[in-house]
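Recall the central idea of this unit: under ordinary conditions, the amino acid sequence of a chain determines the structure it adopts. In this exercise we apply that idea directly, starting from the sequence alone.
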Amino acid sequence: MDSWGMISVEKKPEDDLQLHKSGYQIEVVLSDYITSDCLTKHYGKVLAVDSVSLKVRKGEIYGFLGLNGAGKTTTIRMLLGMIRPTSGKAYICGQEVNAGNYRLWTGIGYLVEMPFSYPNLTVKENLEIIRRLRNLPDKKCVDRTMDALRLTQYSDCKACNLSLGNSQRLPWVYAYFPA
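Accordingly, the structure predicted from this sequence is:
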């Protein structure tokens, strides 16, 4: 069985522009938001992840595809500081990631495998729960996100009644919301 994981980095409009001392606006080149340098993870004698180096810039969505046991989940967890790598380093906004450093997750949405949806709640109700759990004050972000991912027409549809394609699209919204 194949599986997948994903990281999404929030890009705000103010990230592209910077106010210069003279008052002129200067465009800032997108910088690397998440980087890793030779991330490796061993579980005993088993090599789970072997020297992964990557860069994810603001506004990008980076996906991991592969067979079960290929190291996708382990890599994402190391990148976010959920587990400690055997060797190598990960950085978010230039700060080294350490296990349990949750404040670095701000602005990063992540999704590993297929998350749970409440089947008897509507698409909008499921997304509202995620918005609240992530303490997002902007109540309109649910509607904007459904628009962006073309789920608006299903907002009042119960998750259990979605087609396979749309039920697979729903978890992408969870990653679209920053943590």
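The chain has two domains: 1-113, 115-179.
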